Amino acid sequence: HASEAHRTDLMTITRFVLNEQSKHPESRGDFTILLNHIVLGCKFVCSAVNKAGLAKLIGLAGETNVQGEEQKKLDVLSNEVFIKALVSSGRTCILVSEEDEEATFVEPSLRGKYCVVFDPLDGSSNIDCGVSIGTIFGIYMMKDSHEPTLEDVLQPGKNMLAAGYCMYGSSCTLVLSTGSGVNGFTLDPSLGEFILTHADIKIPKKGKIYSVNEGNAKNWDGPTAKYVEKCKFPKDGSPSKSLRYIGSMVADVHRTLLYGGIFLYPADKKSPNGKLRVLYEVFPMSFLMEQAGGQAFTGKQRALDLVPKNIHERSPIFLGSYDDVEEIKALYAAEE
Ligand code: AHG
Ligand code: MN
Ligand code: MN
Ligand code: MN
């Protein structure tokens, strides 16, 4: 019976990636080993998040990060877990984390050919109230086998080999693309394995939801203000869109990917480059959106074409359903 086959044919994320790897034999399994270490980090953070309230992991760590944000205990813990897991994989040479001012250059004896950029815990402001948070990551191949330099991570997002996120919510869901589509895996805690649950995710061409922090409305530029106005008071008599904003990018993007719609973190007068960081928030989510048939725009260009100049650079971002992003691109084009 089909259901029987389904129950016994467990497609774990490791098996899935190995199948993918067969398309890149030259990688000799290095990518699979790297991914397994990222998955290990996600499993650890998932269990820490689930018992945060009990294990005194709520609250501040008493430090601030390069972003000027007060670090939460879980920010610091998850950062340490991912750095250690990635270094011990023996497959990385440079690591960039939201929580570390400088990039980590892996010691030669443990050096591999991949560069990983990551946000160990996204949506930290939601930790203490139990709202979904996540981890975001992107993977580059170093430019060529010379001494690793920052140039190896200051690459446009279109050069990423893979990107993904893990959302710690009612279930632990890992969404991944290695460049041929997007797939979602859910952690089965009884097996400790991520099982394929969302095969070949495609974002609806157009959505009914817009997702933005309306509290910044007084500082928005013209095109953003016009677009949001259009969502609320459509001229052509179509129904208004619904507003959904969780404040964790991972959760807002996951809903957008599955239900359709648009997520916006625009520039505003106070922060002309918006808030979200290019390497480990904008690029991975833009990569996933394009792989799922959507698109991602910075207000000036295709997000994945951006070439970052520093590792914590920010950019405005408009991403989601193809047709919805087309509308905001038209408004910015008219502004030029
Ligand atoms: P992080 O917790 O990793 O610093 O990221 C927080 C980001 C992102 O998750 C979310 O979309 C955005 O901050 C929310 O910002 P506002 O509270 O300004 O809306
Ligand atoms: Mn932060
Ligand atoms: Mn973040
Ligand atoms: Mn973070």
Automatic annotation (TrEMBL):
GO-annotated biological processes: fructose 1,6-bisphosphate metabolic process; fructose 6-phosphate metabolic process; fructose metabolic process; gluconeogenesis; photosynthesis; sucrose biosynthetic process
Pfam families given in the database record: FBPase, FBPase_C
Domain of life the protein comes from: Eukaryota
One GO location term (cellular component): cytosol
GO-annotated molecular function: fructose 1,6-bisphosphate 1-phosphatase activity; metal ion binding
SUPFAM superfamilies named among the record's database cross-references: Carbohydrate phosphatase
InterPro entries documented for this protein: FBPase_C_dom, FBPase_class-1, FBPase_N, FBPtase, Fructose_bisphosphatase_AS
Gene3D superfamilies: 3.40.190.80, Fructose-1,6-Bisphosphatase, subunit A, domain 1
Chain segments annotated as coiled-coil in the UniProt record: none
PANTHER family referenced in this protein's UniProt entry, alphabetically: FRUCTOSE-1,6-BISPHOSPHATASE, CYTOSOLIC, FRUCTOSE-1,6-BISPHOSPHATASE-RELATED
Protein name: Fructose-1,6-bisphosphatase, cytosolic
Organismal lineage: Eukaryota, Viridiplantae, Streptophyta, Embryophyta, Tracheophyta
